[in-house]
Write a structure and sequence with these properties.
By secondary structure, the chain is an all-alpha fold. It is built from nine helices and no strands. The protein is globular, with a radius of gyration of 19 Å.
Length: about 260
Amino acid sequence: MHYILRQYWVNETDDKIKPYVILGGGPELFVTLMLLWLIFITKLGPNIMAERKQFVLRKTLMVYNLMLVVINAYFVCTAVKWLDYGFKPWFDRLPARNQWSDKAVAEIPDKIIYFYTKLIDLFDTIFFVLRKKSNQITFLHVYHHFITPVLAYMALKLCPQTIILKGVCFGNSIVHTVMYSYYLLSAFGPWIQPYLWWKRYITRIQLLQFVIYGVTILIAIYYGLHTDYPIALQWLATWQPFIFFYMFYRFYVNSYNKEKVQ
């Protein structure tokens, strides 16, 4: 158990990733952060807020959402460079652990920062708790915000050169740039709501994103490229686009279609 829970992660972490906080060494700090987040949003936070007045946080949310718009727009541009402006092959073999190009080494700091931004995204749910917006804390929301940093953590520790990380960063950052732009505008108040008719298209973009990821994974499986990856990451990552597509599709139908899913 000690090997599975700690030593495996220490041994398999790429040497170039080990100096970074949270990602170096064992998973204890990362697991602790994620568990504390889960405990706060599901039990501790709602109990604390039960007899308290909700926080408004309007200015805080505007600053937070503006920051994430800028961050995600930056990573759209950065991921385009990682992907050689669309010319990088998507179905190459995963490079061996000791085969690092100068370009790949130069990409590491931005990849680490991208991982940290997935932890910043966890504040979405914390703000929902503080504003007593429990209807927003759905299983889809919690699952999505939990599994994304988990996958990023595993990918950076075990295979930081993977093209999958670059592709996901590109697609996810596009979606988040649009999504946090919507959140930023909606924080201005009721007067702007008539201009935010495009909310449903955010979910459509997300669905398209998962279709692309799913097709990419199926092609990789067909050519046997998935076997380059650690077995735990293979099983966890392979199913996510299909799980997410199903959950987001259900959300879209229940939110925007007149005929609800039975």
